[in-house]
Amino acid sequence: MSEARMTALRLENLTRRFQSGEETLEILSGADFSLFSGEIVALVAPSGTGKSTLLHLAGLLEAPTEGAVYIDEKPVSGLSDTVRTAVRRDQIGFVYQFHHLLGEFTACENVMLPQLVAGVSAKAAKARAEDLLGRFGLSHRLNSLPGRLSGGEQQRTAIARALANRPKLLLADEPTGNLDVATSDHVFDELLRVVREEGVAALIATHNKELAARMDRTVTLRGGKLVAF
Known about the structure:
Order of helices and strands: EEEHEEHEHHHEHEHEE
InterPro entries: AAA+_ATPase (IPR003593), ABC_transporter-like_ATP-bd (IPR003439), ABC_transpr_LolD-like (IPR015854), MacB-like_ATP-bd (IPR017911), P-loop_NTPase (IPR027417)
Keywords: ATP-binding, Cell inner membrane, Cell membrane, Membrane, Nucleotide-binding, Transport
Radius of gyration: 17 Å
Structural class: alpha/beta
Number of helices: 7
Organism: Gluconobacter thailandicus
Number of strands: 10
CATH architecture of the domain at 3-98 and 167-228: 3-Layer(aba) Sandwich
Domain ABC transporter: 9-229
GO molecular function, one term: ATP hydrolysis activity
Strand content: 25-35%
CATH class of the domain at 3-98 and 167-228: Alpha Beta
CATH superfamily of the domain at 3-98 and 167-228: P-loop containing nucleotide triphosphate hydrolases
Shape: globular
Helix content: 25-40%
Distance between the termini: 26 Å
């Protein structure tokens, strides 16, 4: 298998149940999925079908009721909290619909922080942050606090932060869902460009079918399983 087709993420028989009073809700029911290195896949499904749950399981933010998550062909869902945290830090980038930037730190510092936590030197972390923010057209905003940034600038900073530690896998949960159409298109253009340049495997949940059509393929959730759209 060539490097371009290495499996970055594999979900195997993934099931997630929640207890609501006396009722058991099964959000995912034996979902299987593979995502290859350098591939960008759209996840398009109606609200309430389990998109966020799926991304949280893939990103090790939640544990499955049954089934397994593999990253770089290594089983990771059953690891200890400490080890899963390290895997998230080193191998996974997560972009939320709302940016969750730290308001007391500049754009550059927000992108530096995950690198510093991972043990990268301040000099190298700053260089990486400046490079990523520059790719997103934010070189003039390096020293701006989030409150001084537009919604689109905040989201581009959040995407840069998610890519800061050169993750193998990028998971994005409606990353442009709270932006106007023009800003959404621009942010998405930048996201696709940088993800392709960096060769990251990306699973991006979006309700926008036009944006989804620009990705390599599209999947949806049906009956708790992932199927081709």
